[in-house]
Write a structure and sequence with these properties.
Strand order of the largest sheet: 7-21-22-20-19-16-17-18
Distance between the termini: 71 Å
CATH architecture of the largest domain: 3-Layer(aba) Sandwich
CATH topology of the largest domain: Rossmann fold
Helix content: 10-25%
Largest sheet: 8 strands, mixed
Shape: globular
Strand content: 25-35%
CATH class of the largest domain: Alpha Beta
Number of domains: 3
Length: 442
Amino acid sequence: MVKRRRRRQLPEPCVVRIESMSHEGRGIAHIDGKTVFVFGAIEGEEVRIQIRKTNRNYDEAVTLDVIQPSPLRIVPKCEAYGVCGGCSLQHMHNDEQVAFKQRSLLEMMRHAGIEIDKVMPPLRSHPWGYRRKARLGVKFVRKKDRVLVGFRERNTPFLTDMSRCEVLIPQVGERLRELANLIEDLDARETIPQIEVAADDSRAALVFRHLKPLSKNDTAKLVDYAKHNDVWIQLQPAGPESIVNLYPQQQALYFAPLQNEEINIRFDPVDFTQVNAEINHQMVAQALHFLELNKTDRVLDLFCGLGNFTLPMARRCLKVTGIEGDAPMVKRARQNALVHKIDNSEYFVADLSSPDPDIGWIRQQYDKILLDPPRLGAPGIAQLISSFGAKIIVYISCQPASLVRDSKIICDSGYRCTHLGIMDMFPQTAHVESMSVFERSG
């Protein structure tokens, strides 16, 4: 007979003083010497908390009541805040969110012994309605006899019961209840698990993932919704390669890496693109500024994606070599270069987590390098960075811990960090993106 493990009883709610903040944006308190991370609390506050999860070395808790609030506290804009796992800093004014992220990143770099010559002002955008890419969960809840559309609850597998999202573009974020009503009326309401959202300056596309073929009645309702709500709809019966246009039959989304420059990169809804167009414009412009490109420069663009940096750089230098691990994205990057008649860029597919040291492009010399790796960072290619001979390296990071690790590798390879600053790509969240500039020492 298998014995059931007795569920550990959680402590009763208690009052604590928040002593400091974690890098993830949670308040830090101590109870009987044990560290407690508190969601929804700000340094200096006195709050009543409920411990939700216990670990050997620390506990995790949520704020129940604020007894003595910080002057930095504001009322969250979203009704689902605290339940939805999408945002974590709505209780802080956006100015303080940005300052907190900048302080946290600088503290991590300095703790690792990385000296920074100059801190750049943060790149900022409008803090609401900015998000152009998202994956919405869909669930028909039998007990409630209704469909939920939204994001997962914090630390649970369940969907949040929400009618709108304040960080999504309004064209979608204000219509979550409408989308739920639409799916409730479909025969396939129990076999649609998600909706992929992607938008450009003029249009939003919704990709409906469906586990079983849709009836003619369902497709007709989806087409009708698209026509009356000025959105595009695609269907995804299997993997990303199975996506087909439902309405209209011809669809094309584009993003511009820079404002006031005629480069528009075509992308598919499931392609990786930056979620915040305003920050992306500033980010690309700032990277170009620090690269100091001239017509004799050969540039290496690592993790180039669709060419967000590659194409603007190619307009300003002799040649750009773009490297990306995703073959379909490399194909589309080449197509975008052809469309814009940019013939001084080349693209290769390569696994940059374990690069082949004997491949052609890796044995070349480059004047400048741009890296834009995923969250895991770029330790493999960073180990080889000095062999390229570049004078300037610009590193775009979406994960501070991997940035710190890779920065140590780059600095140990003969570079110094001349500039560092955050880019608030995801307002209302603790997510930190940043740009670092490295120059060869001596």
